[in-house]
Amino acid sequence: MFKSDLDQRRFETFIEINTLINSDYSNARELLQRIVESATRLTSAEASSLLLLNSENNKLYFEIALGSKGPELSRYSLHLGEGIAGWVAQHNRSLIVDDVAEDPRFFSAISKQIGYTTNSILAVPMRVKDRCVGVLEMINKRDGKVFDQHDLQWLEIFANQAALALQNARSFQRAREEISRLQDQVNADQGYHRLVYRSPAMAEKLELAKRVAETDSSVLIMGESGVGKELFAEQIHRHSHRSAGPLIRVNCAALPESLLESELFGHVKGAFTDAHADRQGRFELAHGGTIFLDEIGEFPLKLQAKMLRVLQQRSFERVGSSEQITVDVRIIAATNRDIEKAVQNGSFRSDLYYRLNVLPIVVPPLRRRPEDIPALAEFFLKQLNGETKKQVRGFTDEAMESLLAYSWPGNVRELENVVERAVVICRDDYIQPQHLMLSDHDASTEEHYHGKTLKDSINLFKRNYLRNALEQHGWHQTETAKALGIQRTYLSRLMKELDIRR
Questions:
Q1: How far apart are the C-alpha atoms of 293 and 258, rounded to whole Å?
Q2: Count of other CB atoms within 10 angstroms of residue 468
Q3: How many CB atoms sit inside 10 A of residue 164's CB?
Q4: pTM (two decimals)
Q5: What backbone phi and psi angles, to 5 degrees, belong to 328?
Q6: Contacts of 264 by beta carbon, 8 Å cutoff, 6+ apart
Q7: Helix or strand holding residue 39 (H, E)
Q8: What is the pLDDT of residues 12-36, one digit of tens each?
Q9: Integer Cα distance of 177 and 379 in angstroms
Q10: For residues 251 and 330, what is the distance between their CA atoms, to the nearest angstrom?
């Protein structure tokens, strides 16, 4: 191929990427990946990497690495001035090194650790307003050739494109984060929380909650402690025609029985020793809106008849009064108890249960929606970085495997606590498995297994995913296979291969 043909290809690639830079800022990593791939192909390099400079700690991180050992480079970083890339970043100058073994600036430790032989390097700075923000680096020109000035000139063009893409994407991300932060602040001021999920199971439940929101019927939200039942109550209220009204929250288990009646229904002056004035109850405060009764399973039996009357007639009397008060309130209740069992043993009225359970929603535990774990962990990490003023960049693959392998008996609330503990303990750029301190919290060898290789990790995910699906369908293989969109014989084979037993 003649050089003019190669230059034509480089020019066409330049135009293509430049168009992308000016049209799509939402996925910076994908755009940077395409730039590095193009630069690698058009300079005939065996491998390549794009390193970004963190100005706070003066370290270079491998954002993108291509080649046979590319995936292994993501765990490494360089100090400013360390290695060829570090020298380029420090001096903000391009560099061609034909024989790295003869250059004292070459940092050989990483090459030795990943088992890759580096002979020559072409590295150029990525600049934003003449300030170096990263380095684009090509490794080993193919066929034993060396990089020349022509390669350098074109790589500098690609580096400028990468810097522009990075600048646009960061500006876009900052604007998006500011909008999100302001929205979160508005929601927080109103007592609302963000519902973070990625799993189809949660998407399905959220869609159900939005449909339920259109009515005024009572809702009973069931699920284990910490799954996010209150967040579903918020979603129902916010998507209802009552959203402009108040959402009043009551934790029935947190109030002693002697105070619960007064808190819910209010009292008149002199009703009891400390009743120095008339007081509105939570039901009156919720007029025109929604009342959320958390832990309704703990509701005292002697007050259940009064609660049933409120559900049926939307009326009650304050403590110490015979005057009827009528309210316009939508009731949402939640429990982590087996209410049907409580009805059977007589600790919960069956008529109250049926009135509450008009529209039931069961929130699945975190172990049955593993797709949500990475999204939630990253959300909590970002939130905690802001609160603690730390700059933990993320989780190592091994740490994420640990999170995915754990059974989460405390669900989302426990995950948040684990991430908070890890951020406090972590002194590295990334959270490691030891920072999570999960080993003492899960006695199940199967659930706590950490995949050592990619194959192990994939099998771990498959095993947990299939077991959870089987549990959801009562271990009925035909129904499970149908829900998963696979043949029952294939499911049986997978169960045998992965040693999945009831």
A1: 17
A2: 16
A3: 19
A4: 0.62
A5: -105, 95
A6: 250, 281, 282, 283, 303, 307
A7: helix 28-42
A8: 777 777 776 666 656 677 778 888 8
A9: 12
A10: 16
The amino acid occupying position 425 is I
User: What is the sign of the dihedral through the CA atoms of 246, 291, 220 and 198?
Assistant: positive
Residue in the block written with tokens 């168009």:
19
**Confidence band of 447 (pLDDT split at 50, 70, 90):** very low
- Closest by CA position to 137, among listed 152, 156, 151, 122: 122
Long-range contacts of 454-459 (CB under 8 A, 24+ apart): 457/397, 457/401, 459/498
What is the rounded distance in angstroms from the CA atom of residue 57 to the CA atom of residue 461? 35
**Residues 454, 59, 436, 469, CA torsion sign:** negative
Sign of the torsion angle spanned by Cα atoms 46, 52, 57, 58: positive
Residues 6+ apart with CB under 8 A from 32: 50, 63, 64, 162, 165, 166
Q: Which domains does the chain have, with CATH numbers?
A: 3-175 (3.30.450.40), 200-364 (3.40.50.300), 367-497 (1.10.8.60)
Mean pLDDT computed over every residue of the chain: 84
Q: pLDDT band for position 177 (50/70/90)?
A: low
> Which residue carries 């590319």 as its tokens?
70
| pLDDT score of 184 | 55
The stretch 234-239 carries a mean pLDDT of 94
Q: Which of 259, 278, 280 is nearest to 269 (CA)?
A: 278
Separation CA 417–CA 376 (nearest Å): 12
Question: For residue 93, what pLDDT is reported?
Answer: 95
Structure tokens at 361: 């929603």
Pairing assessment for the beta strands 430-431 and 45-54 based on DSSP bridges: unpaired
> Whole-angstrom Cα distance, residue 283 to residue 280?
8
Structure confidence by residue, pLDDT tens digits, 127-169: 988 899 999 999 999 988 999 998 898 889 888 888 888 888 7
* Average pLDDT of span 468-482: 80
List, for residues 63-102, the tens digit of each pLDDT value. Answer: 889 988 887 887 788 999 999 999 999 999 999 999 998 9
pLDDT of residue 168: 80
What is the DSSP code (8-state) at residue 413? H
CA angle 500, 397, 206 (to 5 degrees): 65
Concatenating the DSSP letter of every residue in 106-140 gives ---HHHHHHT-----EEEEEEEETTEEEEEEEEEE
